[in-house]
Amino acid sequence: MRVGHAQRTGDGWLTGTTVVLAPAGGAVTAVDVRGGGPGTRETDALDPRNAVERVDAITLSGGSAFGLAAATGVAEWLEEQGRGVPVGPDPAQVVPVVPAAVLFDLGRGGRWRARPDAPMGREAVEAAARTELGAEVPQGSVGAGTGAVAGGLKGGIGSASAKLPSGTTVGVIAAVNAAGSVLDPGTGVLYGELYGALSGARPSERPGGLPLTPGEAEHAAAQRRLTEASAETGRRTAGVLRPPLNTTLAVVATDARLTRPQAQKLAGTAHDGLARAVRPVHLMHDGDSVFTMATGERPLAEGELNDLLTAGADVLTRAVVKAVLATETIDGPGGVFPSYRDLYGLTTSPDASRGYGDA
Q1: DSSP 350
Q2: pTM of the model as a whole
Q3: How many CB atoms lie within 10 A of CB 126?
Q4: Which 3 state secondary structure label does DSSP give 226?
């Protein structure tokens, strides 16, 4: 699996697109949509009762419903590669099925019409195609996470992975853009940490030296700054972003050999990991959606499916924590969105690949 990002910032822009590109032959793919306001494309094709067995790419994008246009650029690139559902005798006669989901970031850079389009989708899939296998996935304010916000904090892209005892791998990429909060309002601890996202990590391994629990005075000061930032955002965007509109998106990828119903079950149980890291979740103004992509290189051992389902949820929780820790504060015409690290005085940029037990 390869991941590619494209984004635009400055001059009124704060948005982007992320593409997860399957290897040749595609991946068994499923989706579970639980938010009350989803923006999606081609998700009906993933129903196990329907005809499409495998897909070549998934697109995650900012721009709300307008951002679905990014998937067109991905589909056009795939067609040029001869990848898609064969529909004629000529090998070039294919129809790429590109499931996509979008999050709401309109106006966060200052310009309402600054949103992803087909060229940005092409840019993201081309970036994925150039990526070496095993390359580190850029995290933070990139791709679909460029304009993401989570409960007033700057959100973004996070990625995490785990390996089961059999060697089967499960990895997650998440674009965290939630109406709910990612931190406990009473303590400042990230919800994902309360549920053990960093369990087993030594203090020296914690990204940016993150304390387990911020001090009481530190937390009170951070809450004041967050309230001030939200008020300033309201002044800069008076009447534009009401009510809060968000959506967290994720792709759970595995090398396990899954049937389509099993892939859909993995997408569903992974939502439990999202619920551990964001509270409240799956609201009417979220479009929370989780995809699964299974490449099928490794047959599941007897009884291993439950382990895979458990790992998918755990890894999604960690991906949310890593997204929040990897972002930088945004202060622009579309609002002030402070990063968690800035609010709590974590001045050292986190190495988001350490301390999380990634495969």
Answers
A1: P
A2: 0.92
A3: 17
A4: helix
Backbone φ, ψ for residue 153 (5° rounding)? -85, 155
Tally the residues of the chain. Answer: 359
- Please provide residue 140's backbone torsions phi and psi, each rounded to the nearest 5 degrees: 100, -135
Cα 75 to Cα 81: distance, rounded to the nearest angstrom: 10
Rounded CA separation 287/249 (Å): 8
Burial of 225 (0-12, 13-18, 19+ CB in 10 A): middle
pLDDT score of 228 more than 60: yes
The whole-number pLDDT of residue 243 equals 62
CB 8 within 8 A of CB 113: no
Q: Please confirm whether the linkage preceding 280 is cis (ω < 30° from 0).
A: yes
**Cα–Cα nearest to 340, from 199, 226, 212:** 226
Instruction: Report in angstroms the alpha-carbon separations of 291 from 42, 58, 252, 267, 275.
Output: 12, 8, 6, 6, 16
Which of these, 164, 165, 176, lies nearest to 311 by C-alpha position?
A: 164
Amino acid at the residue 83: R
Q: What is the DSSP letter of 130?
A: H
In this structure, which amino acid lies at residue 95? V
Using CB atoms within 10 Å of the CB of residue 194, give its burial: 0 to 12 exposed, 13 to 18 middle, 19+ buried: middle
Q: What is the layout of strands, in order, in the sheet containing 57-61?
A: 2-10, 13-21, 57-61, 100-102, 40-41
By CB atoms closer than 10 A (0-12, 13-18, 19+), residue 76 is middle
pLDDT band at 84 (very low <50, low <70, confident <90, very high): very high
d(CA 340, CA 94): 45
- Whether cis (ω within 30° of 0) applies to the bond prior to 243 is yes
Evaluate if residue 355 carries a pLDDT over 50.
no
Angle at which helices 260-277 and 304-326 cross, to 10° = 40
pLDDT of residue 236: 87
Of the chain, the end-to-end C-alpha distance in Å amounts to 14
